[in-house]
Design brief:
425 residues; alpha/beta; 6-stranded mixed sheet; 13 helices; 16 strands; 34% helix; globular
């Protein structure tokens, strides 16, 4: 039976129970969100990466579960919703092909403020921000007290970053890309009026007191996300240095769009390790020909394909490299990875995965790794690009563009929610 494991980032609402502990007896494992935990990379990663983080935070709800999506006919709602009138499952084509759909529920990684794939990256990025960093002027080192990142006007990454920063005592600065940037700035200057609004994620950004900066799509295209982030970081640090007040000098930590760099990608190297452990179904015991003893090995649920959305490349890099190396360690053929790009084009994302892999210090030239993983003998190539292309197929899926949907896409989202209770993003 063919199996597909899909990772979706979704948004949903939740209520947290607040507990007040009056008396604590005995040892407890409760820690502050800002506690730095020593990080030990998965065994499949330690041999191949030079630049491994030393610490991470634990602010995500992990592990996230894997759910099997069952076929369902909603007989209680007449002709259904949206433009479709059939009661047959929208996933019927999968069942007709005898394909089982599994969902790795990374939408359950946090509450409404943190849920989705970004929090995995932020556990490493914010841990790095909380550690000592050398000053550019050579005057020693200090911890960062502000974080700057960038994304679209309704960016889930920016929302999660802002909330996570407040959890660990960092000041969040968000650069939101919007066509309304000049209009909003004009209203602020001429009428002293804030017209940016409180819709969707912008409301959550404001609720946690994020400092909101704006750029136009044109500025984003001309300068690039990293240059814009670095400029705001410099402004924060320059302002604190030139201030006549007694406030200490500030240090800002830059996070690129989507949290997609070498540090953030470790969140999905860990996610692959988590997935592999969840797929373990028992032990295989066979008799050794050499000494007659038992040779035990783990048995794993077989999956053929892994599918996920790709917006900035970090999640794609972690899953692709992680799957390749994890299944090499297991001496098994890896599932085919599929990244569906919501922007740019496949060539851009192949290059981005290669670039992040290099930044992570990925080395595939050890003595035992001399062949291509994409070949039938399941070994590994010394070329990162060849290795990546042997593992992942990147699809063009941007449709009408960022934050724009067709009626067919909206109908699918609505009907999928109706059948499964899962709201896709």
């Amino acid at each position: 039976m063919k199996r597909i494991s899909s990772i979706f980032s979704t948004a949903y609402f939740s209520i947290s129970l607040i507990l007040t502990i009056a008396t604590v007896t005995g040892a407890m494992s409760i820690t502050s969100p800002k506690t730095l935990h020593k990080y030990v990379a998965p065994s499949f990663a330690r041999a191949f990466f030079r630049n491994i983080p030393t610490h991470k935070l634990r602010i995500a709800n992990l592990p996230t579960p894997i759910h099997q999506v069952e076929p369902y006919e909603y007989n209680d709602l007449g002709s259904g919703i949206g433009s479709g009138s059939s009661k047959t499952s929208i996933l019927q084509p999968l069942w007709d092909l005898n394909i089982t759909l599994l969902m790795k529920r990374d939408d359950m990684s946090g509450g409404v403020e943190l849920g989705g794939n970004k929090i995995r990256k932020l556990e490493f990025l914010l841990a790095d921000a909380l550690q000592e960093h050398n000053n550019e002027d050579g005057t020693g080192s200090r911890k960062c007290d502000a974080v700057v990142t960038i994304g679209g006007e309704q960016s889930n990454h920016c929302r999660a970053t802002a909330a996570a920063c407040r959890m660990v005592g960092l000041e969040p600065h968000l650069i939101l890309r919007t066509r309304r940037a000049n209009q909003v700035e004009k209203a602020k200057i001429e009428e002293n009026e804030d017209t940016f609004g409180y819709i969707g994620n912008v409301m959550f950004d404001r609720m946690v007191g994020a400092h909101i900066h704006m750029c136009t799509p044109g500025e984003y295209g001309r300068f690039g996300n990293k240059a814009l982030v670095e400029r705001v970081c410099r402004d924060i640090e320059t302002e604190s240095s030139s201030s006549s007040s007694s406030k200490k000098k500030r240090k800002a930590y830059p996070i690129p769009v989507g949290g997609s760099n070498a540090m953030g990608t470790w969140g999905y190297i860990d996610a692959v390790d988590e997935l592999v452990q969840q797929l373990k179904i028992g032990e295989n015991t066979s008799t050794s020909d050499d000494d007659g003893g038992d040779d035990k090995s783990d048995l794993y649920e077989s999956i053929d394909h892994i599918v996920f959305a790709c917006g900035s490349g970090g999640t794609a890099t972690g899953i692709t490299l992680g799957i390749g190396l994890a299944y090499y360690e297991l001496n098994e053929q890896p599932p085919r990875v599929h990244a569906v790009g919501v922007c740019d084009d496949p060539d851009y994302f192949y290059a981005e995965i290669e670039s992040i892999g290099n930044e992570m210090g990925l080395e595939l030239t050890t003595k035992s790794l001399t062949r291509s993983l994409s070949s039938n003998d399941s070994s590994i190539s010394s070329s990162i690009m060849e290795f990546v292309k042997g593992l992942v197929q990147i699809h063009q899926g941007k449709g009408l563009g960022y934050a724009s949907s067709t009626q067919e896409e909206l109908d699918f989202i609505a009907e999928f929610a109706l059948e499964t209770g899962v709201v896709l993003d």
